[in-house]
Amino acid sequence: MMQMRTHTCNELRLEHVGQSVKLVGWMENVRAVGQNFAFVVLRDFYGTTQIVVETEEMMAVIRDLNKESTISVEGVVRERASKNPKQATGDIEVVPSKIEVLGRCRYNSLPFEINRSREADEQQRLKYRYLDLRNPAVKKNIILRCNVIAALRKAMMEHDFLEITTPILTASSPEGARDYLVPARKHPGKFYALPQAPQQFKQLLMTSGFDRYFQIAPCFRDEDARGDRSPGEFYQLDMEMAFASQEDVFAVCEDVLPPIFAKFGTYDIASQPPFRRIKYLDALEIYGSDKPDLRIDLTATNVSSLFEGSSFEVLADKTVKAVAISNCTLTRKQIDKLLTDCEVQAGAKGYWFKVDEKGDLAGGIAKFVDKEAASKLLPLEPNTLVLVAGGELATKLVGVMIKTFGPACEGHMDKERYEFCWIVDFPMYEIGDESGELEFCHNPFSMPSGGLEVLLKAERGEIDPLTITADQYDLVCNGVELSSGAVRNHDPEIMIKAFELVRLGEEDVKAKFPAMYNAFCYGAPPHAGIAPGVDRMVMLLAGIDVQTLQRVLGDDVAGHHAADGHAHGQLGLVLHQDAVLGLLQTAHPAGVGTIVLLLHLVAGQNGLAGVDDDDVIAAVGMGGIGDFALTAQQVGHDDGGLAQGLAGGVNDVPLALDVGLVCHESGHGFLPPIYNNVCFTFPCALAKIGTEKAH
């Protein structure tokens, strides 16, 4: 007997009939059919077993128990008279001789029915996550995640990768999002940063002489919630290889991932290597997206010539792209509904026309289209629907159209498979929307294709820097970006030249990335890597839509994450005068560009404990902070008076009252660190990277 039982609730079969057993678990349901006769469903982690109560003594034990109480059952296994083929243990039942209550559920009613928790309100599910996870349908996703991670580890080790854990408390560095900071108790005014990714650590490992590295790495980013990423933290299969090229990384991923997708996925068909390679610009031109879903056979065509000088001014003399959908049976109402959905996603209006059964153009904007000219560009067979997008957002809109109409039009999407592809040849540079000047397009530390020579040509004006591509790549599966990776720029000379083209120099690189730059100066190997997202991978394997990624997060057991980035539960922060003053006074020496101080009160509390307007204003002035954003909820202050005082004592002070606990409206914060009972986040620390304001 182990863990108080002889068998699990999913273990007993006909061969166990006549045996004395002991089961433990939750009392999922009770169906009384007589004074001393009842059917009890006992559930544990593994499954369910039916218990048949037939005596007054046993009935007395369960009669007053609420569902979800934990019990121990000792009894004899017997064959069921009426078997249940839908239940793994449906051929048997247990007749108890002893029932012991282990943990009583005190509530007559539950927040939601356990086995139907996925239909409950999301906020309730997160608040009672421990009840939600009792639902086998929910629990199976966490089991899946565990099995996938175990398989990934095994596969990586079989490819001679070493699993090396990198630091969690580290220094801040300018990356793609804001940092989470942890105060250093022994170094007042200084902070650790939680890593947004182990990027620099793994490159330093390659410089240290390690050949193949991986880990299941936690990443922490203070950024707005996304449909396909848990706010605050997520996990990735982080890997790096020394003396490696892009093709070396591709070979490992193409060897590791397809068997895992075929074994654990909802669909048992996965792309076999080599995965299709698509150039970045080609992906935009053909699919309208750098994350194409290759299960869909729809593509985009440039039809700008059709609308040159057109009387339809919306599309006249603009970039116009079209998607032709053969054998389309959608009604006008269905088409308009789907186009509205596309408009919401892309921020641009789409149009349409169709070829009717007779081969004539009809509907939508048909009167503005010349059939003869259109037939030279598009396959205009009868019953073909043509979607049209124009203007600056034409590419984005046709990408959304393809992914929206593909699943809706029969015969144009082979859904039950996993289709991988590599997106390659990303642009190294772009013209910034705001600056109007040359900027890095994606990862500034990717190796430019052509190395130093191509950068020198751009510097001399022999080539357009916008034509330079980077040895950077994305791994896409079913329209979801699983990962980005790159061949790293390991040569300090090439690195400096790449930065000089965007008006930065050696001192800028040294200041922002001192450890990595200095290490490369001691001789670094060419190296390359990638980091597929574990949560997105499990989402695809579970067959779950991208908007419901929250449901597969294995570390969301406590329910402390929410889709909008807010904390859950009865969380209250009591602010004391010393804590506020201490925080403000220590912030200035840290050199922090912007501080967001979140003031939130325990339910029912009126006003801050021991803090008044003068204290806050004086502290801000004493700290000498240039850019200070204060948010508060139910602060009990005179809003106007406080705003006037702050504006008078501080340069450039935005004030926002009645904003949520984590300043959701300003885009700041999720589960930020706690410092002397003060909850706060910083966009940057230890180096004044830039200035962010709350509003």
Provide the fold topology.
Elements: E1 20-34, E2 37-43, E3 48-53, H1 56-63, E4 70-79, E5 92-103, H2 122-127, H3 129-132, H4 136-158, E6 162-163, E7 181-183, E8 191-193, H5 199-207, E9 212-221, E10 232-242, H6 246-264, E11 276-279, H7 280-287, E12 300-302, E13 320-325, H8 332-346, E14 351-355, E15 361-362, H9 371-375, E16 384-390, H10 394-408, E17 420-427, E18 429-431, E19 438-440, H11 451-459, E20 469-477, E21 480-487, H12 492-500, H13 506-512, H14 514-520, E22 527-530, H15 534-541, H16 577-587, E23 594-599, H17 613-623, E24 627-632, H18 639-649, E25 655-657, E26 674-675, E27 678-681
Parallel strand pairs: 6-9, 11-17, 23-24, 24-25
Antiparallel strand pairs: 1-2, 1-4, 2-3, 4-5, 7-8, 9-10, 10-22, 12-13, 13-16, 14-15, 14-16, 17-20, 18-19, 20-21, 21-22, 23-27, 26-27
Helix pairs in contact: 4-6, 4-15, 5-14, 8-10, 11-12, 13-14, 16-17, 17-18
Feature tags:
695 residues, alpha+beta, 5-stranded antiparallel sheet, 18 helices, 27% helix, globular, disordered C terminus
Radius of gyration from CA coordinates: 30 Å
The general outline is globular
Give unreliable regions as ranges: 549-695
Main pleated sheet: 8 strands, mixed
Total DSSP E strands: 27
Overall structural class, as computed from helix and strand content, comes to alpha+beta
End-to-end span in angstroms?
62 Å
Indicate the multimeric state.
single chain
Percentage of helical residues?
25-40%
Q: In what range is the share of β-strand residues?
A: 15-25%
| Alpha plus pi helix count | 18
Mean pLDDT: 82
Strand order of the largest sheet: 6-9-10-22-21-20-17-11
